[in-house]
From TrEMBL, chains A, B, C, D:
Pfam family, one: PfkB
Keyword Transferase: yes
Nucleotide-binding listed as a keyword: yes
Highest taxon above the source species: Bacteria
Membrane-spanning segments: none
Gene from which this protein is expressed: iolC
Taxonomic lineage from the root: Bacteria, Bacillati, Bacillota, Bacilli, Bacillales
Protein name: 5-dehydro-2-deoxygluconokinase
Enzyme Commission identifier(s): 2.7.1.92
InterPro entries listed in its UniProt record: Carboh/pur_kinase_PfkB_CS (IPR002173), DKG_kinase_firmi (IPR022841), Myo_inos_IolC (IPR030830), Myo_inos_IolC-like_sf (IPR023314), PfkB_Carbo_kinase (IPR050306), PfkB_dom (IPR011611), Ribokinase-like (IPR029056)
């Protein structure tokens, strides 16, 4: 199948959960009385964000057989994400929850419910080869590696992607609470990163993958000896760096914004960066798209619903040019 | 210690959790966008409700070391419940959650989060003998028997109660989702019921205890051969029956009310019934207090916050006299 | 059913396992090359021992669906134990193993395999009421309480015993490696001991039950407030004491013997004591039977196969008279 | 470090367990009364066998802190295997057991004890980089992939091997009872096989790896696209095939022998094949060494103790020339 014939620009694999955002913020969650419900989870946010920007997006994941599961499926479908690759759990697993607490722009925290969550019960035999081969790229969220059988489902999906020349994008998306040991994280992050064509993460996340305090030069040296062709390393307010296998290095600047909370910055970055890349924009532009998108989301209350439009992104870039 | 010297009328043992009630109701939860947070869980509701009615109430339970745990502790303390017997979990367990869905007065359902919940990790060594001996009565919630080590904590608490002539009240509070097998339920419900002085439940709950379709005569016959002196069996709209060891039978009628949802009826019943009993009212009056209290709660949105006052209860009884 | 019409003098409930006894002894197990296979496990040994002495004995337990399971069933049947109450596990559980090491008569140890053992997976619904009601007495081994669902099966069996006036004998049989916490042990040992008519154990085992360093007077005071009528407390070389509800106290002396190993002493004691009691001998004689039987078994290599005959027991008693 | 400076020809990683072989054979195990104790487990057998043939061999694995663990360590050290890479478990895990039953040469079976076994608790941080870099080759046993954390320890070891140009040999060693799902097996077998330089297994085992009924041509085609340079596929009595990346194919014939039991054939095959290869013999000769070694072991009672000498192997080859 040629790239032009592909039905999806991107299929994301991993968790789609529920965010419960404090309606009353700038206070501790103990004093919050009301929560608003959104879809959350890094790969779900990226899928929703990039669909909103115009990419043709699919999703592979497992949702519970309950009201939260049905909400997730409908929300994503309404956002333009193809949900035919989502599997409904039949064993009583639940939707992951993230109660967000915004004490101040600097003090945000999340209270997670991740025990027995459906997304980590996706099984390798539930990953569909025919679905994956219709994509230009498969995006793997690192958290999907945290536990069996979701972990094996990831490797199965990568095997199908490799077989059908589908690019593998690895968004490191490291969440400490889902992992038992740093060694385990490092082992599986390495196994996936070595097979990925594009790897995106923060400097801290790459350090987890390498199980040491590393530096960009050695990280990209390591991954370019395997299958990577493009690596993006994010350094917070210092901006992000893109490295290509052919040796080019790009630096994307970060945009200032009126920060409400820090959640969702990475997801909106990835959505806009990948959209730009897949739309044929150059890497430098893609970096700025990512930064602008992140800056917009942190100024808003939700993550998935706040994913910006191209117009918003370009306006921010122009305003800061 | 004489009964008059006791610091608490009632100490309840079991779960104190979080209710997340759909703000927008008369619709499926999939369409709900906002949830209000309350304290929930049967023994917590009974403790709050009976404290509100004027009893001196304590609580034994385990709460998570997070924002939800702190909210629960503060909410109960503010409601007048002594929380010095509550233990903070240090092993990462979470607060149980109940998302309530009110499609219509007849169609209510609850989406539970009960995996890894702190309340079921109360350990026998965390139950304080000195605390229990200060109570006139210890109320055990059946759900606390669902799992170790909470199950053993219940037996430990009963042992202390027996040693210090504290009455044991068993509120069957059967929730199918917390149990693995009907045999297991029956075994532990029987072991506690045989040691209880007062047993309260619905006919269906007594059937779970006996692991058969039983009838009131044989149920009370069985329990009066052990330590029971008063047994209350609830039959929904047909009202409730109280049986005493000396052979008296009382029938309490149910009150009609404008039902918003069915949650919380049993807890408010128990709170008002026990308050009446402990205030020296006769059994017939206590039954009507229970019925009236239940009728009031089902007409309101929350459970713990909606627990009625004596004035409300007596007004309803008078209006229906 | 009258006692005379009963088909079984005794039905034992609990584990039936495999002993692998070092053929070469008086050395550490590291240097052992050969092991002999026997049936083991306290209640299995008691069943075999008392059947050998002439009691009509049945057994309730769960055995694996493998060669070890079939060996256990055949060995016990050949020893005269009715095995119709034994259930074959269908979930891949295994037989418990005990590798015995005899370094010297003073230094014996056991290497246990107790993970995933079939005996602890006996379910309450696998306990047969019709079987139990045919017994004069039901013997519960404390180890069967160590884990669900075997724990619930014990309580179910006791419920049936009570219903049909079958005496409950509780052999404390405490094995630390099967328990997670001393509080848990104490809770369940107490619950069973309070329902037992005869309780047999070492002073140390009664201390576990009471979760404190106790003394015989307070122990028997506690149990006689419940359903006990006869309590036997063993004090090693100082002999054993029997206490009756009516206030009699008997002291049984211990017999000296050429000790090869210490395993199996308690089981052979119980087998001979119960046989004597059920044969109408007086309590003093029963104590001496127990002591003699224990003295014989510790001088031999195995446990189950070494259970003595009446002639051997009486010969030892006469020789020491 | 040059290959000549390396301290070890081979370091094997995986389980070292206890075999309990029926002393009385040609009968069902139910009728066996005595068992002989040996060290067992595929990688332990290969280590012992190749050490006996003259290779310098090390071992990475986890053994219990008990009599069985100490026996294993001493037995392997006595057989000439360096055991400095073996870790003693401190969490109460046990030695795996294999009770062998020899009903007839055609009917052999094994009763396994694999629940909570120490070998599967080897942790990635317990794998020593300095140890691995001293080896010419690292042999991975497929069973070590069956469970975390041993699974991650394997990937960690491979990472060290790759870093220090140590050849990775993958002995598929598939045992169905250690795996939960064929998909899981296939995922991890593929991940290791794609990194291995030498892969050895039966046709059935390669089918497990590929999760389909495959054929040798496609199997070797797949693996030569990754890092393999030599692949050995065994077809039982039809002999074995060796494939090299450069396109050569060798066929090794099987030797007839007076079969006592079938256990241990694969391990002795691998030991002799690897010894021949590492001693500079050609591939065809190595195949015959493997076949001869297997033929000798199946005619003897044990596995680890029966590993043949070079003289025995060469005598058998000559006798069949």
């Amino acid at each position: 199948m040629s790239q032009n014939e592909k039905k999806y620009d991107l299929i994301a694999l991993g968790r789609a959960c529920i965010d419960l955002n404090a309606v009353e913020y700038n206070r501790p969650m103990e004093e919050t009385h009301t929560f608003s419900k959104y879809v959350g989870g890094s790969p779900a946010n990226i899928a929703i964000g990039s669909a909103k920007l115009g990419l043709k997006v699919g999703f592979i994941g497992k949702i519970p057989d309950d009201q939260h599961g049905r909400f997730i499926q409908k929300f994503m479908a309404d956002a333009g994400v193809d949900t035919s690759g989502m599997v409904v759990d039949r064993e009583g697993h639940i939707a992951g929850l993230a109660f967000t607490e915004i004490k101040s722009p600097e003090e945000c925290s999340i209270l997670m419910y991740r025990e027995g969550v459906a997304d980590l019960y996706l099984q390798p035999e539930e990953v569909n080869e025919d679905y994956i081969k219709q994509a230009k790229a498969l995006l793997i969220s690192g958290t999907a590696l945290a536990q069996s059988p979701s972990r094996e489902a990831v490797f199965q999906a990568i095997k199908f992607a490799k077989k059908h020349q589908v690019d593998v994008i690895f968004e490191l998306d490291y969440r400490s609470y889902t992992w038992k040991s740093v060694y385990e994280t490092s082992v599986y992050y390495s196994l996936v990163a070595e097979q990925a064509n594009i790897v995106i993460g923060t400097r801290d996340e790459f350090d987890m993958m390498e199980n040491r305090k590393g530096d960009n030069a050695s990280t990209v040296g390591y991954l370019f000896r395997h299958q990577a062709k493009l690596i993006v390393i994010k350094h917070g307010v210092e901006g992000s760096y893109a490295y290509t296998k052919s040796g080019e290095i790009y630096h994307g600047t970060a945009y200032k914004s009126k920060v409400l909370k820090t959640f969702g910055a990475g997801d909106s970055y990835a959505a806009a960066f990948l959209h730009a890349l897949m739309s044929g924009k150059d890497i430098q532009t893609a970096l700025q798209y990512g930064s602008a998108s992140a800056a917009i989301v942190v100024s808003k209350h939700s993550c998935s619903e706040a994913m910006p439009t191209i117009a918003e992104i370009e306006a921010l870039i122009k305003a800061n040019a």
